[in-house]
Amino acid sequence: xxxxxxAALLSRHLYLYKRSFPRVMEIIYWPxxxxxxxxxITLYLERFKxxxxxxxxxxxxALILWxxxxxxxxxxxxxxxxxxxxxxxxxLFASPLKPSEFLAATMxxxxxxxxxxxxxxxxxxxxxxxxxxxxxxxxxVPFIVNLIVTGWCIGVLTTGLIMRYxxxxxxxxxxxxxxxxxxxxxxxxxxxxxxxxxxxxxxxPAAHVxxxxxxxxxTGGFPVQDLLWAMGLNALYLAALIFxxxxxxxxxxxxxxxxxVGE
Amino acid sequence: xxxxxxxxxxxxxxFGTFTAVDGISFEIREGEIxxxxxxxxxxxxxxxxxxxxxxxxxxxxxxxFGLPFDQHRETILNQVNFSSTxxxxxQALTVEENLRVAAGLYGLDRVSERIDDIVTRxxxxxxxxxxxxxxxxxxxxxxxxxxxxxxxxxxxxLDEPTASLxxxxxxxxxxxxxxxxxxxxxxxxxxxxNMREMEEMSDxxxxxxxxxxxxxxxxxxxxAECGETDLEEVFLKFAREPEAPVHER
Lengths: 263, 249
What we know:
The complex is a heterodimer.
Chain A (H helix, E strand, L loop, with lengths): L2 H17 L1 H26 L8 H31 L3 H5 L5 H31 L11 H25 L6 H8 L15 H8 L2 H15 L4 H32 L8
Helix pairs in contact in A: 2-7, 3-5, 3-6, 3-9, 6-7, 6-9, 6-10, 9-10
Chain B lengths: L3 E12 L2 E12 L3 E5 L6 H8 L7 E6 L2 E2 L4 H5 L2 E5 L10 H11 L5 H11 L15 H14 L4 E5 L7 H18 L2 E5 L3 H7 L2 E6 L2 E6 L1 H8 L4 H10 L9
Parallel strand pairs in B: 3-8, 3-9, 6-7, 7-8
Antiparallel strand pairs in B: 1-2, 1-4, 4-5, 9-10
């Protein structure tokens, strides 16, 4: 075993970190997100002193719904990355295809992914934990639709960033969405958050969806206000992000990045 | 004289302080094959990318079929296609699946019939159902050409289309391009580093260096102007001159 060869390989990887902020961030990012999420979950559980009602429904339901958002985001971002990896972007955008049509196709694909993944998770929850997500009722349907739209928003944002900054920021495809998890209040209510973070969470449509879900479980009623907040914020963000994506697309064409991404 | 299908006027592309294409103007007439020649980094590919709308020019104008490109992108690109050695197609799809996707992008009818036809013409039957990742580089090039011919474009941009083909398939491909051009009056912009091929294929040649047109005309006219008998000698002469003179057009 020769140390100089090991050192060469080490330096090969360290060179990457020297110039790559996303890679450095990734080292810090996941432990930080885990700590924040589990910290707030602990604070929430502490309220019940070990006797939390509807424990399984709260957590398994939340996990299944979070996956809806995650897959919706992945449906857009991974579809774009597939084109990058296969160096196919030029074939697409030198054809009559418009960026809006590209987004529409990836959004439809994300719905197909969400349906498939949900089918698997719902069945697994039923089989392993006897948890029937449909017991939550049909009132959850509009909330699920909103989670898909939130996933699209994060997907469009991530895709625009990858298109603009290249494969250097590819890790965002899997990581960025989790930045929204602590303020989506997936496993705990908004009231657990410190006041300053609550204000940020309020601007996140997913937080209203999960608040709504908990209200459905605890009261059985239909939380109109949560739904309206989620819909309003989603409509605003999606419109703004689609506009921004088109702007990014134009910037990439000006800078010649569209033909270089993936190289 | 045939109508100009592609018109480029004072086309410039700057990336920061670097000028990739520097105020070039040219036309390609209906049914003409125009060869774009120049050393690496001369601006050939950037020019093609601007003509395909994937790079926005810094200044200048592109008109195709008499229409300004920036205002009629969709109409123009429906009738334009390209093939490049440097652009791949999805590796996890079969040859036929890739062609079907391309047909969808261009809104083609008679898809199966068109695919059968192009697969036969390019002798792709034996790997029609093969995954793209399993193709040899020559087969990959044929797939890229098949994608380009599938939409029966009126204008075709070919960036080193025969670079990785064996001499037999390369000759057949050139013959096919010539045949399609003859029967459909297809307009072609062609780049290659193979000088013999350039002479054989091109009605006219534009020589680019450092983003500028330094010579333009038929291969014979350019050779005569430079006092050379071989286009390769002309290429080497231009490419090795630190600041090649800009010839009057």
